[in-house]
Design brief:
By secondary structure, this protein is of the alpha+beta class. The chain is built from seven helices and twelve strands. Strands 1, 2, 3, 4, 5, 6, 7, 8, 9 and 10 form a ten-stranded mixed beta sheet that branches. A two-stranded antiparallel sheet has the order 11-12.
Length: 307
């Protein structure tokens, strides 16, 4: 079978070169862009839900206003092409039909190819506009909470949890300021593992009379009851390969350094056997050799040479 020739893109302008470098592989990836799409037929509930998700994800979003005659579970190739075109590794797609009303599909890509995809039914939807209280500012990194043992016990739900984390997380941070925690998104799974309830809250820090403030949660929307419909997940081996990190980012283990139960760093040093007689000490009169000891030392050296 002849080898397939791949087209190599070469930039013709300085701006094009900058775009290709930005899309190329990096040790630390860019913040993931999300592609928001509409199917051929949609409903008001699905459109409002997509609009609210768009508000939560801004500014790392790409919105396509035209309708797309696409069925992701039958053929995902059009979405893969759009993902490559707009450099978006996440997508949200809505559709509506008699068999699957108010349908939402969330998915993610790896190397411009589909990795995971989940189809959710939208139920008991309350939009952001249904809550009249103050909202959070755009671009706030949310705190994600997952309630229910099924998220860790059921493999499919564990993968869906990982997908939600990828979908709503933003840039990686090393430290968190207490006043910076303003938004909480909570996902709760029922006992059957068929429904996932999404709720969004604003964190209020109020006076408590002590140093630590009193924390209250105020629901701001959107509020959605998702019903699991269809799944298309990558195999465990393929998913493991996608999670592989480059060697440059892995923390190198320092030899002979460990931590005890109290968290104190403990080091071990390997040294050769020391001769105490040759140990350098402070030069004091009391530690100097006497004339008799010096004569004996000279005699020993003479006898050693004579032998």
């Amino acid at each position: 079978m002849p080898a397939v020739m791949q087209r190599v893109l070469k930039p013709t302008t300085r701006r094009g070169k900058k775009v290709l470098i930005n899309r190329g592989p990096k040790l630390i990836e860019n913040v993931r862009q999300t592609l928001f799409m509409k199917g051929k037929n949609t409903s008001d509930i699905a459109r409002n839900c997509l609009k609210d998700l768009y508000q939560l994800k801004k500014p790392e979003v790409v919105q396509l206003n035209k309708k797309n005659d696409v069925l992701p579970f039958e053929d995902v190739t059009p979405i893969e092409k759009l993902s490559k075109k707009y450099d978006a590794s996440l997508f949200a797609f809505i559709s509506h039909n008699k068999k699957r009303p108010n349908n939402l599909i969330l998915g993610r890509m790896f190397d411009n190819q589909l990795l995971d995809m989940v189809e959710l039914g939208i139920g008991n939807f309350k939009s952001l506009s249904a809550f009249t209280n103050d909202k959070i500012a755009a671009g706030i990194k949310p705190c994600l909470l997952f309630a229910g043992p099924q998220f860790s016990q059921v493999p499919n739900l564990n993968r869906i949890q990982n997908l939600f984390i990828d979908f709503f997380q933003r840039e990686k941070v090393e430290a968190v300021r207490l006043q910076g925690l303003e938004h909480v998104i909570m996902f709760t799974v029922d006992d059957n593992g068929e429904n996932i309830f999404m709720r969004s809250y604003k964190i209020l820090l109020k006076k408590s009379g002590e140093r630590i403030p009193r924390v209250e949660l105020e629901e701001i929307g959107p509020s959605v009851d998702f019903k699991l419909r269809r799944l298309k997940l990558a195999s465990d081996d393929h998913f493991k390969r996608t999670c592989k990190q480059p060697k440059q980012l892995k923390a190198r283990k320092i030899k002979n350094v460990s931590h005890n139960v109290f968290g104190t760093k403990v080091g071990r040093i390997h040294m050769t056997k020391q001769d105490i007689n040759k140990l350098q000490t402070r030069k004091m009169k009391g530690l100097k050799k006497s004339i008799k000891e010096k004569k004996e030392q000279r005699l020993k050296k003479v006898k050693a040479k004579a032998q």
